[in-house]
Design a protein that fits this description.
Number of helices: 10
Helix content: 25-40%
Strand order of the largest sheet: 6-7-8-3-9-10
Distance between the termini: 20 Å
Radius of gyration: 22 Å
Number of domains: 2
CATH class of the largest domain: Alpha Beta
Strand content: 25-35%
Largest sheet: 6 strands, mixed
Structural class: alpha/beta
CATH topology of the largest domain: Rossmann fold
């Protein structure tokens, strides 16, 4: 596992580098409210999730944090720095992995990582050490001398993360960092995201992968239609759902949604996966119903367990990921 990156001593200790957004509002045109009075804070060392459907306002907020877009009202600060008044310092103190792939087609992987570290002010020995550690930690040694145009989408994504993590800013923003990454290396990537947090960096994790975010974030905020609708730890956000259980049924492809029994409190279907919510007292009834669907050739398998953060997310936003059983992607 890679060790924590070193920070520029001139930046001081991490304790004073709290990120705060207060009543941030951004309106496009006359009536399109992208951000509507959003307030949140992230402590140094926290991995903070930012969740929400497409068009919820996440990208607008990120652009304001890194100084590419000014809010119409509200404030954004990092420690003593006003990121709205001084967008230049925002770009100096924040590192950003966009959802789009990094433009590294003409660079070798290690070259791209080291060059980014040098641009961010790292000294050459430290940059070389960090690049080597990250390449090993993410298990991409076989591609370190390959150019970007030779890489798969997943490996290019990992190289992009290493570019951001080599010499990180005080805030690191990761927009869908696990896109296209295979399951094994996805676990390695989550480990390195945790290493960043443990080094004192404030990590913003923008993702649709609610199931993985639940295991990795310290706190999170859910944004919908420009408003912050929930904020807290994964456990606190699930407090209202503790008497409920998730019954997940994998239907035979092409099957219609079966008639739902009265004890099903909520449901959502994505492709051939049917997600239902039932009360704990109805767990035995739910199992018999799911087993009956299998006996009738309507379902292939089912699983009953505690409600997850994804269930809370669906309940609050009405949105669900396209593949709730597992994250998509490949090397």
């Amino acid at each position: 596992m890679a060790t924590a990156p070193k920070h520029d001593p001139s930046l001081g200790s991490g304790k004073g580098w709290v990120f705060r957004a207060t009543d941030v509002t951004k309106i496009y045109g006359e009536d399109v409210v992208a951000n509507d009075g959003i307030s949140l804070s992230v402590e140094p060392g926290e991995v903070f999730g930012l969740l929400g459907p497409n068009g919820a306002g996440k990208s607008t907020l990120v652009k304001q944090i890194i100084g590419l877009l000014a809010p119409d009202s509200g404030s954004i600060t990092l420690g003593s720095h006003d990121l709205v008044a001084d967008p230049g310092v925002a770009r100096q103190l924040c590192s950003y992995l966009p959802q789009a792939q990094m433009p590294i087609d003409s660079f070798r992987s290690r070259e791209a990582i080291e060059l980014t570290g040098l641009i961010r002010g790292g000294d050459r020995p430290e940059v070389r050490r960090r690049a080597g550690e990250l390449i090993e930690a993410l298990d991409i040694q076989e591609w370190e001398r390959s150019t970007g145009q030779q890489l798969s989408g997943g490996v290019k994504r990992l190289v992009g993360f290493a570019m951001v993590a080599c010499i990180p800013g005080r805030v690191v923003i990761l927009d869908e960092p696990t896109n296209d990454v295979d399951p094994l290396r996805r676990r390695l990537l989550w480990d390195q995201i945790r290493v960043l947090g443990d080094s004192g960096v404030a990590v913003f994790l923008v993702t649709h992968n609610v199931l993985e975010a639940e295991k990795s974030v310290d706190r999170l905020a859910i944004i919908d239609r420009g408003k912050l609708i929930a904020q807290g730890t994964p456990s606190s956000l699930k407090a209202d759902d503790r008497a409920r259980m998730r019954l997940q049924v994998m239907l035979v492809p092409g099957s219609d949604t079966p008639e739902l029994p009265a004890f099903v409190q909520d449901h959502a279907r994505v492709s051939h996966n049917l997600l239902t919510v039932v009360g704990e007292a109805d767990a035995s009834h739910a199992i018999r119903w799911a087993q009956g669907l299998m006996d009738a050739g309507i379902a292939e398998e089912y699983a009953l367990g505690a409600t997850s953060l994804e269930d809370v997310y669906i309940r609050l936003t009405g949105d669900q990921s396209e593949e709730p059983l597992a994250a998509s992607g490949g090397a």
